[in-house]
Amino acid sequence: MIQAWSADDVRAAEEPLLAAGVPLMQRAAFALAAVVRRDLARRRAVAGPDGELRDGSVRGARVALLVGAGNNGGDALHAGAFLARRGLAVTAYLAASRVHEGGLAALDAAGGRVVALTAADGGAAPQPGAARRPTVGVTTAAAAASGADVIIDGLLGIGAQGPMRGMGGALVDELSRILPPPGGTGRPWVVAVDVPSGVGVDDGTLPGPVLPADRTVTFGAAKPGLLLPPATHLTGAGAVIDIGLALPPAARTGGRPAVVRLEDADVAAAWPVPGPQDHKYTRGVVGVVAGTTTYPGAAVLTAAAAVRAGAGMVRYQGPDDVARAVVAARPEVVPADGRVQAWVLGPGLPADGVDDGQRGRARAALAAASGLLAGTQDPVPAVVDAGALALLDRPCPAWVVLTPHAGELAALLVAHGEDVERVGVEAEPLRWARRAHELTGATVLLKGGATVVVGPGVTYAQADAPGWLATAGAGDVLAGLLGAMLAARSAEVVAHPERAAAVAAAAALVHGRAAERATPGGPVAALAVADAIPGVVAGLLAAR
Ligand SMILES: NC(=O)C1=CN([C@@H]2O[C@H](COP(=O)(O)OP(=O)(O)OC[C@H]3O[C@@H](n4cnc5c(N)ncnc54)[C@H](O)[C@@H]3O)[C@@H](O)[C@H]2O)[C@@H](O)CC1
Ligand SMILES: [K+]
To answer: Which residues does (6S)-NADPHX bind (predicted)?
Structure first.
């Protein structure tokens, strides 16, 4: 798993080392320079006589350093000095009147070129460091940097406050305008130092201009903003550099990472593999209340995903014609009442209007799952999706998992007295998923290009899915898959409700991997994603 620590935690972990004189910046900068050299060498790979690709030479490669006022700029300058000593042609563009003096001296000594940014060519020279520097206007600087082989973005790191201002902001605006998008031809390789400058380090927001990176080299530990949407989509490939920090740091934050991203091995290790003693009830029965006569497909997709994810049994509740469609698609499904170990409520259920009695069934199941019908049935986990989200009129336990997309989350929040629209949720997914958790008590899985899961004291962020997964029915598949995963751990999740979030994050990972497996590199249908689940689970288990 990748653990991300807040800016405060990282600073707290750095403090004792800095006090002891440990050269953290040198370590960080040396590792940064090594990653840049390796990336460049691979990008310049040439075929040897045997046809094998060999790393190319990086001598003479042009490097543009974007340098801000703080230690992030210091990292960039020191890395630039290392690169200049290895024969690369380094130019630093200073976006502040004062920059890290040691870094500047190192770059000067290594033969790097240094220019100061001004609003327009011929502008008055600021006084960066000790020496007067030549100046260059932002537009000219951006044009020159766009012709480099690599741009090292050291404008802002974990000291960023709000949208990037000043020359740095203007330079990034101009570069964003003229550079091809990541992966585009003719684009320099953009390496972000610690974080892409200007992202919300702790919340993944984009308060102002941010240059999308092809690689982010981060120090000590991942930062929350690298994992959380929307910023996670601008980080490119990752590299976490160990600079010797001892995390978790002091008790200040309870010793917990701010955000966690699960990886394949975590999901494989926690996946329950049936043994000789198991039968369909120990493996978990999933009850599905989904679909209406108008929207029968959601019921089919939800039930199919629950079957494919290894539920011991799937029970379906709903109108007869929908039940017939479900059984025709998946003859394993039992269209009858009975005990369940987890519920999936709401896929294909409209928020209002004709519901064929489904709303009443979902309401009763949600009350039973939440433990509000004492004496009738033990509480069990539940997935509450789509139309069933409108049924949350009282606090839930955290073993109830809500699975809204941004629009549905906005509607839920408005129903609970908040003033927010879909775009607001998309701009600040962590904030609003947290708020929904606080207001409802439920675990909240917010769907999107990246998935955020918030439970009691825990936050997960998954970015496992190809863009092709954004297709009708994909959410129904996730609900069924998650229902089966919760049913398999029913008693454990009710006893330890904070674990529901980890199960939900694991479901997001499997869902994304299934989409990857199902897509031929192009469009993918939701039912194909459900059908890919067994192969994904088998692959995860084979690697454990
Ligand atoms: N503390 C350390 O010893 C280490 C720090 N490291 C680097 O240092 C970085 C943190 O350094 P700093 O604390 O100096 O912070 P930053 O380098 O992120 O920069 C903060 C500076 O930028 C300015 N600033 C803040 N918000 C701004 C905005 N929105 N627009 C324009 N200017 C803004 C402030 O005036 C401040 O001077 C890390 O991200 C990492 O790259 C690494 O070298 C590892 C060791
Ligand atoms: K940066």
So the answer is: 71-75, 157-163, 194, 298, 348, 405, 476
Domain extent, residue 123, equals 2-7+24-38+56-261
The b-or-e profile of 283-322 (16+ CB within 10 A means b, else e) is: bbbbbbbbbbeebbbbbbbbbbbbbbbbbbbbbbbbbeeb
Rounded distance, CA 529 to CA 532, Å?
5
Report the domain count for the chain: 2
- Check which CATH number belongs to the domain holding 394 and give it: 3.40.1190.20
Same structural domain for residues 173 and 286?
no
- pLDDT at residue 359, as a whole number: 96
Counting every residue written for the chain, the total comes to 544
Residue closest via CA to ligand 1's atom 36 equals 70
Pairing of strands 443-446, 451-455: antiparallel
Is 210 found in the same domain as 292? no
Does 231 lie in the same domain as 331? Answer: no
Q: How far apart are CA 428 and CA 134, in angstroms?
A: 41
Distance 112 CA to ligand 1 centre (A): 22
In a domain, 540, yes or no: no
Query: pLDDT tens-digit profile of 227-269?
Result: 999 999 999 998 899 888 887 765 556 678 999 999 999 999 9
Closest residue to atom 24 of ligand 1, CA basis: 160
Binding-site residues for (6S)-NADPHX, in ranges, read 71-75, 157-163, 194, 298, 348, 405, 476
Predicted-assembly ipTM surpassing the 0.90 threshold = yes
Helix (H, G, I), strand (E, B) or coil at 19: helix
In a domain, 536, yes or no: no
Last residue within a domain, chosen from 212, 231, 261 = 261
Nearest CA to ligand 1 atom 4: 25
Q: Are residues 174 and 311 in the same domain?
A: no
Please tell me the distance from the alpha carbon of residue 174 to that of residue 39, in angstroms, as a whole number. 25
CATH number of the structural domain spanning residue 181: 3.40.50.10260
